[in-house]
Amino acid sequence: MDTDECFALLRSGIAGRLAVVDPDGWPYCVPLLYVLLDETVYVHMSSAVGHLRRSLEQSANVCFEVDEPGAVFDYGSFECDSGLAYRSAMVFGTLRVVENETTRHRFCDELLGKYGTGVPGRPKGFYPRLDRITIYALDAQRLTGKQTVLPTESERWPARDRTPTPNARPSSAVARLPS
C-alpha cells in the first residue's frame, strides 16, 4: 500500500500492537488503543514501571502494527489453497515521551473521541488522572503496508482455479484420513 493508504488505515484502525525488544533480548508485543494526529501515532500507558517501560528504557526503537482482517476465501482446489483478505500497516520509529500539556490534553480528547461511549452526564475534557499516565508519540521513520483484496466470486475457486500445484495428488495415506 502507498503512504496515503497506510495513514488511512492508521486513522480508521481500532487497536494496534506495539513491539519492542525487552532487556533480555526477547521480542515483546502489547495491544494498545491509539490515535493518529498529524501523521504521528500516539499511545498511552500507566506511568508504573513494568515490562514494557523497562524495555523502552533500554531502547525506544519500536514497531507499531495495525491490521484489518477481511474474509477467508478459497483460490484453489486443495484445502490449503485458502487466503485472507486484509490490510496492514507498520510504523517503525523511535517512541518519545510527550511532555507538552496541550498535546497531552489533545491526545486524551482525541482518544475519547475515538473510543468514548458518549454517555451523557459525564464531564467532557476533564482528565483528573492525566499525571498518572505516560503518553508516547511515534513519528514514522519508515512506514509500510500491504493488503490482499477479496477476489470477486468469479476469481475465487471453483469459478477460477488458481492452485499453484495443479498436478499434485494426495498420497494414499492422506486420502484415507477422516475429514
Explain how this protein is built.
The protein has 179 residues and is an alpha+beta fold. The chain has one domain (3-74, 86-150): Pnp Oxidase, Chain A (Roll). The protein contains four helices and eight strands, in the order H-E-E-E-E-H-E-E-H-E-E-H. The chain has helices at 3-12, 51-58, 101-115, 172-175, and strands spanning 16-21, 27-32, 34-37, 40-46, 61-74, 82-97, 133-139, 142-148. Strands 1, 2, 3, 4, 5, 6, 7 and 8 form an eight-stranded antiparallel beta sheet that branches. The radius of gyration is 22 Å and the shape is elongated.
Q: CATH superfamily membership, which one?
A: Electron Transport, Fmn-binding Protein, Chain A
Q: How far apart lie the N and C ends?
A: 38 Å
Q: What level of helicity do the residues show?
A: 10-25%
- Using the CA coordinates, give the radius of gyration: 22 Å
Number of domains: 1
Give a count of the beta strands, DSSP E runs of length 2 or more: 8
CATH topology call? Pnp Oxidase, Chain A
* Structural class label: alpha+beta
